[in-house]
Write a structure and sequence with these properties.
The protein has 148 residues and is mostly helical. It has helices at 3-17, 20-40, 47-71, 74-88, 97-111, 119-129, 136-147. The longest helix is centred in the middle third of the chain and has 25 residues, at 47-71. The chain starts with a helix and ends with a helix.
Length: 148
């Protein structure tokens, strides 16, 4: 089942259950997917493009969550956390830190990186492999650790 089909199915379920929060998040994701399709000029998006949009939505909410926490806005923090939970249900299974370290070590060997100067080449090689399966800041932190 494609992401769009799954979103439509879950939207019907949320409407029947009168789950406004889930329905709101699904509608925002569908709008983002539609905007991306318009932007790219395609009628449908590939799975990779859909994953990119989903990852962007998750990142936006994580950034907002951090800002709301710093500002002490507990009401908005709870809302962002609830939206994040709904979005994470559509993301692929996340890599554990050990699995991510293995991917990074393998990539460092493949690229032949030896110092922090090679950080960009390692990051550009790792990110497509772990797209949607982990947070980019965690990748950056682990790559930094192994290249120091």
């Amino acid at each position: 089942m494609s992401l769009t089909e799954r979103l439509n199915q879950d939207m019907k379920t949320a409407m029947k259950a009168r789950d406004k929060e889930t329905l709101s998040v699904i509608r925002m994701v569908k709008a983002s997917l539609q905007n991306e399709a318009i932007r790219t000029g395609n009628d449908t998006l590939s799975e990779d493009e859909e994953l990119t949009v989903l990852s962007r939505e998750v990142k936006q909410r994580k950034d907002s969550l951090q800002e709301f926490q710093e500002a002490g806005r507990d009401d908005l923090v709870q809302k962002q956390e609830a939206e994040l939970q709904v979005l994470k249900g559509y993301m692929p299974e996340q890599l554990s830190e050990e699995e991510l370290e293995d991917v990074i070590k393998q990539t460092i060997t493949e690229v032949g990186a030896t110092s922090k100067k090679d950080m960009g080449s390692v990051m550009s090689a790792v990110m497509p492999k772990v797209k949607g399966k982990t947070d980019g800041s965690l990748v950056n932190k682990i790559v930094n650790k192994h290249l120091s």
